[in-house]
Amino acid sequence: MSVAVSSPRPAAYSLGQITLHWIIAALVLFQLAFGDSMGRLASLLRRGETRGAGDVLMADLHIYLGIAVLLLVLVRIVLRIRLGAPATPARGHPLLGRLAAATHQLFYLLLVAMPVTGLVAEYLYRPMGEFHEAGKPLFIVLILLHVAGALFHQFALRDGVLTRMLRPAG
């Protein structure tokens, strides 16, 4: 999934883009931390055991927050198309810029595919759950790369990349 960017490129992200970034990040981290609740509930049901209110609540939260992630990501994609994104800083190796672009594209793909595959697995076709679950380790690796890249830009290259996601465009 390629997300087109309008030109000219802004110097920073908008307040809406920044807000969506951090809300989606928090929701994804919650999903990664507590997403196993769906598997636990399914396991309880398969074994015929009583499911507790907490199990049902966590499974329901996983579904509803997954839908929220999908909707928020769609809004974020629209904003990115309409408002653009700041250019990659000139400092650093060109390969880092390509790695960052690929990482962002894969993030967008996963941020759409994970909720869709989860919903399909829950409501239409259970085997899709295997694809859904396979995305978790990929998400974790991407998050680690993303955070490492942001910290590298901030503290090694000192090019203000991290600041762009903390301070909105004027």
UniProtKB/TrEMBL annotation:
Q: Which InterPro entries match?
A: Cyt_b561_bac/Ni-Hgenase (IPR011577), Cytochrome_b561_oxidase (IPR052168), Di-haem_cyt_TM (IPR016174)
* Swiss-Prot/TrEMBL keywords: Cell membrane, Electron transport, Heme, Iron, Membrane, Metal-binding, Transmembrane, Transmembrane helix, Transport
Q: How does it sit in the membrane?
A: Multi-pass membrane protein
Tell me the cofactors it needs.
heme b
- Domain called Cytochrome b561 bacterial/Ni-hydrogenase: residue spans: 13-167
Q: Say which domain of life the source belongs to.
A: Bacteria
Where does this one sit in the cell?
Answer: Cell membrane
* Principal subcellular localization: membrane
Q: Does ATP-binding show up as a keyword for this record?
A: no
Q: Which GO terms describe its biological process?
A: respiratory electron transport chain
GO MF terms held by the record: electron transfer activity; heme binding; metal ion binding
Q: Which Pfam families would you find in this protein's record?
A: Ni_hydr_CYTB (PF01292)
**Family listed:** Belongs to the cytochrome b561 family.
Name assigned to this protein? Cytochrome b562
